[in-house]
Amino acid sequence: MKAIGPFQVVTFAHPQGCRGYLIADAASKEALALDPHLDLVNDMAERVKSEGWTLRAVVDTHTHADHPSGAGALAARFKSVRMAHPNARHVGVTVQLRDGDAVRLGAQSLTVRHAHGHTPDHLVLLADGALFSGDSLFIGSVARTDFLGGDAGALFDTLHRLTDGLPGETVVFPGHDYNGRMESTLANERSDNPWLKLGDRAAFVKSLTANPPPRPANMDDLLRLNREGVDIPATVSAAEAARLVAAGGAVSVIDVRSGAEYASEHIPGSRLIPVDEVEKRLDEVRAVPAPRLLLCRSGNRAKRAQSALVKHHVAGLCVIEGGIGAFAAAGGTTVKGRTVLSLERQVRIAAGILVLVGVLAGAFAHPGFLFVSGIVGAGLIFAGVTDWCGMGLLLARMPWNRVAVTDGAAVGGTCSATAPGTCSASVPSACSAGKPPVR
Length: 439
Hints:
Blueprint: E1 2-4, E2 7-13, E3 19-25, E4 30-34, H1 41-51, E5 54-59, H2 71-78, E6 81-84, E7 95-96, E8 102-105, E9 108-114, E10 123-127, E11 130-134, E12 137-138, E13 141-142, H3 152-163, E14 171-174, E15 184-185, H4 186-192, H5 194-197, H6 201-209, H7 219-228, E16 235-236, H8 238-246, E17 253-255, H9 259-264, E18 265-266, E19 271-272, H10 282-287, E20 292-295, H11 300-310, E21 317-320, H12 323-329, E22 335-336, H13 343-364, H14 370-386, H15 390-396
Parallel strand pairs: 4-5, 5-6, 6-7, 11-14, 16-21, 17-19, 17-20, 20-21
Antiparallel strand pairs: 1-2, 2-3, 3-4, 8-9, 9-10, 10-11, 12-13, 14-15, 18-22
Helix pairs in contact: 1-2, 3-6, 8-12, 13-14, 13-15
């Protein structure tokens, strides 16, 4: 927690690079939430409770194009007022914030500034000593302006209108950062940020609009989600999954099968995180753009992965109905390699061998061996009732099921690069040297 004058600020960092904030008046203990990511709703809620704050408002600085907003879910927990700029037209927003408005917390207030540039509905919040800049000014960079009604010239005007009169010690809290940084100061940005030092408007516009990065994955669906407040469904049809992947959503597919199964056939660009590893690799899961499509052979392991991840408050999880076979049958593109037995078939073969061995050994060696067959039968019944199969988890750890994958999505079952397609606001130069672009 950081003290800024009368305010207390808590920063919440998401693996995708997003930043959300709780801002509270220390005296009255009234607080607002700014740009909550759907994955971070529980973390923010628990912090509000632990601090004994009253969450008066939840604010989105703009319509997010690369991640699901948690504003609706967080506001519903505390019966808070939702706020946004009128141009956002978000369902559920009851207070529209315009340039010059004040958001009051106890006896204190934060000033709203319309910050057209990244999007027409963008706003920022100013406190005495702090600038919550959203997706307008970043640490060492600025927003992209090539979609959603963005305007590079308007961004240039906005940046100077916002910052020129502020003291250098003003703390900048950005909406995103991909290098683990939480804050900067205006003095540092004036000194180090090349975009603030670029004083010619025409040169700024020309440089900012050259070579824009790719659109964020699932952008259209996320915009609809964040504007209309619709829920991400728990399952998605194979046909709809094929449509999402064809539109650039392969980076949102999490394949929870074994490495060997993945190597035998997978969706190009998908990420391998076996079902027995999802709880150990939560940040990798969260780094995948939502809606996150969980894939296995039939859907059963994907549902187990979904249940495990929900316990850790990971949001936006969809199971692809029917698994990879249904996806391919629906016209989805897959890459095939060496054919291997699926984990389900391996379980059936292993169980059959154990039952047969138990029966034969019980008949010809000692009756006690019949217990082996009984135990296997009981295990299969338990697996059918609970949808949890210990034999399957054990087989998944066998060396022949842990083949290294090298198509860029995963190597040895681990992520080999930052998830692509996760940024929606970027300066062109930020993609150099292998760095993910900032928002």
